Amino acid sequence: MNISDVLLRPTITEKSTLLQEDGQYTFEVAPKANKTLVKQAVEENFNVKVLSVNITVNRGKRKRYGPRFKKRPDVKKAVVTLQQGDRINLIEGL
C-alpha cells in the first residue's frame, strides 16, 4: 500500500476538536491501513513526530430502503498522538 493512499480525510467533529488541544488528531484511514502505515503517513505528510496511533473500525449500519436492507460501508478511524509542541493545521485560515 502506498503511503499517500493511507490517509483519506481528517475527521472534524466536536470531540475531535477538543482532542486537538491535547495534541491528538483523528483521521479516516484506508481499510487495509495499520498503525505503522498511519504513523509513517502522518510524519511524512505533516512533518511532525508521532508518539502513538490508536485505530478503531466502526461497522456500517443496516438501513432499510422499502422492503430491502442495505449496509453502509465500514469506516476505519485513527487517533494520532503527536509529540508535545507539534501541531497540524487541518483547517486553513485559522
Tell me what the structure shows:
The model has no long low-confidence stretch (mean pLDDT 93). Strands 1-2-6-3 form a 4-stranded antiparallel sheet. It has helices at 14-20, 35-46, and strands spanning 7-10, 24-29, 50-58, 62-65, 68-71, 75-82. With 94 residues, it is α+β, with helices and mostly antiparallel strands. The chain has a single domain (3-82), classed as Alpha-Beta Plaits, CATH 3.30.70.330.
Determine the strand fraction and express it as a percent band: 35-45%
Q: Which CATH C-level class is it?
A: Alpha Beta
| Helix residue percentage | 10-25%
Count of all domains: 1
Order of helices and strands: EHEHEEEE
Principal-axes geometry comes out as elongated
> How many helical stretches?
2
Could you name the CATH topology? Answer: Alpha-Beta Plaits
- Overall radius of gyration: 15 Å
**Termini, distance in Å?**
33 Å
Level-2 CATH architecture: 2-Layer Sandwich
* CATH homologous superfamily heading: RRM (RNA recognition motif) domain
Quantity of strands, as a count? 6
Low-confidence stretches: none
* Biggest beta sheet summary: 4 strands, antiparallel
What's the rounded overall pLDDT mean? 93
Describe the strand arrangement of the main beta sheet, using strand numbers: 1-2-6-3
Structural class: alpha+beta
